[in-house]
Amino acid sequence: MRRTIPLLIVMVGGIMMMIQFFIPHQISQAVFGLYTDYVPVIAGFALILGVGSLTRVHYHKVRRRAENWQYSLLVIFFLYLMPVFGIILPASLGGQAEEPSVFHFLYRWVQIPIQSSMFSLLAFYIASAAFRAFRARSAMATVLMLAAVIVMMGQVPIGDYLGKWFPALGLWILRHPNLGGKRAIQLGVGFGILATNLKIIFGVERNWLGGAGR
Amino acid sequence: MYEQIGIWLAAFFTLAIYSFLYKENPVYRFAEHVVVGISLGYFMVYTYNNVLEPRLVRPLFVEGQLGLIPIMLLGLLYITRFFRSVSWLSRYPIAVVFGMAMGLSFPRTMLSMVLRQAEATVIPIYRTGYAWHDVLGSVIIIVGTLTALIYFFFSKPHKGWFFGTGSKIGIWIIMIAFGATFGFTVMGRISLLIGRVQFLLTDWLHLIE
Prior knowledge:
Chain A contains 9 helices and no strands. Chain A has 2 domains: 110 residues, no CATH class; 53 residues, no CATH class. Chain B has a domain of 87 residues.
C-alpha cells in the first residue's frame, strides 16, 4: 500500500504512455488526452510542496530569531504579495483599466531587473574564471582558449574590424566542431534519460519514493 | 508617474545587485531575498492562472464538472508530505505524474535526442556548390561526433588504434566545443550587462538619448 501500489502506478502509467505513442488508435489518443488534461493539474498541486517548504523554513527562522531572520520575513512577505495582487486583487495601480496591475508592476520593475542584473553579474566572475582557466598551460587549454576567443571576437564589432574572416571563423567553429562535440554529449544525455526512464518505470530507481528506497 | 517609480525601483535593485561586486552586504541581501519571494510568488500566480484555474477551478466550481473531484483530491494528497504519519500518501500523485511523464518521455527522447541526432550526423560530405570549408565542416561533424562518443565510452580502455586514437581526437573536439560554448556564454552575459548599463544610463539617468 505504501510502496508497492505507487510503484505499480508508475509502471502501468509508464508502459501505457509508451504504448500509446506507437499505436495511433482512438483509445490511445484518449489516454494521451487524459494525460494532457489532468496530469498538469495534479503536477500543479506540487507547488503547494515548494511554497509550503519555503514558508516553513523561513517561518522557523523568524520564530527562532535566527541570524538574519529579517530577510526571511521579506521572502514570506513578497512570496504572498504576488498571489494577493495576481489572483485575489488583480487591480491596476490607480484603478484605471489601462494602467498596469500591481502584479505586473512588481514583475516588470522588480523581478526582471533583479534577475537580469544577477545573470549579468556573472559576466564579471566568468571573466575572472576565464583568466585563471585560460592560462595556456597545455596544448588543449590553448585550443579551448582560442576557440573561446575566436567565438567572442566574432560577435563584436572589433572582430569584424580586425578581419572579415573573424565572424565567419567564429560561426564555422560554432556550426561544425562545436556541433560535433555537443552532439556526442547530447547523445550521451539522451541515452542517460532513456536508461533513467526505464529504471523508474520498472522500479529499479526508487529514490522518488523518499527515504532512498527503504 | 508609475513608470518613473518603476524606473527608480529597477535602478535601485540593479545597483543593489551590483554592490555584490564590492562585497556581500545588506543591500544585496535585501534584493536577493526580494527576488526569491517574488519569483516563487510569480510562479504561483502563473501556475494558478494557466493550469489550475482553467483546468480545475473554473470547470469544477463554476461549470460543476464533478468528475474533477478525484483529480483535485489526488493533487491535494501532496499536502500529506508535511505530516509524517501519512506522508506516504503523497507518493500517489507523484507516482501518477512521474509514471506517465516517464512513459511519455521515453519515445520522444529516443526520437529527438538519439535518432534525430544520429540522422543529422550522417550527412553528405559533399554537395554541389559546397566550398572547401563546408566539406571540412561536414567531415568534422561526423568524425567529431563519433570520436567524442568514443571518448565518453568508458566500458573499454582507451587503447589501440580505434579506441585510443578515437578518444584522443574526441578530447580535442570536446575542448573546441567547450571553448566555443564558453565564449558564447560570456557574450550572452555581456549582452545582459550592456542591457542593464543601457537602462541605467538611458532610462534612469538620461545620459544617453
